[in-house]
Design a protein that fits this description.
- By secondary structure, the chain is mainly alpha-helical.
- Helix content is 73%, strand content 0%.
- The protein has four helices and no strands.
- The longest helix is centred in the first third of the chain and has 28 residues.
- It is globular, with a radius of gyration of 14 Å.
Length: 113
């Protein structure tokens, strides 16, 4: 695959991910979470989307699975993110829980995943 093809695919996936992130943010706002909490969850999931397109084989957010999350949390994040710590990992875990629960509730993924 040429670099142009890769960059074009990344752009397409980012366009696919944008409305998912926006809907997730809206659902958190409707749930009455604090603005700081909403911002943290959305930024965590958005950072994960960057991992999915740059360090995984071009995975859209709605196709991410348990293996992607595990690889991110256990391998990539502690090695690559300078701010990785126990508390930041717990923050990501909370964000993943909220996000994938919402994905199941909105039938973007099977509820039992």
């Amino acid at each position: 695959m040429s670099e142009l093809d890769y960059d074009a695919q990344v752009d397409v996936i980012k366009e696919q991910n944008a409305p998912i992130l926006a809907s997730f943010q809206t659902s958190l706002e409707q749930a009455g979470l604090a603005k700081k909490t909403i911002k943290n969850h959305v930024e965590n999931i958005d950072f994960f989307t960057e991992y999915l397109v740059h360090y995984e084989p071009l995975t859209p957010l709605d196709e991410a699975d348990e293996g992607d999350v595990t690889s991110f949390l256990l391998d990539w994040f502690p090695d690559k993110a300078m701010w990785a710590s126990v508390s930041s990992t717990k923050s990501y875990l909370a964000s993943f829980k909220k996000f994938f629960q919402w994905m199941g509730e909105t039938q973007r993924i099977p509820a039992d995943v």
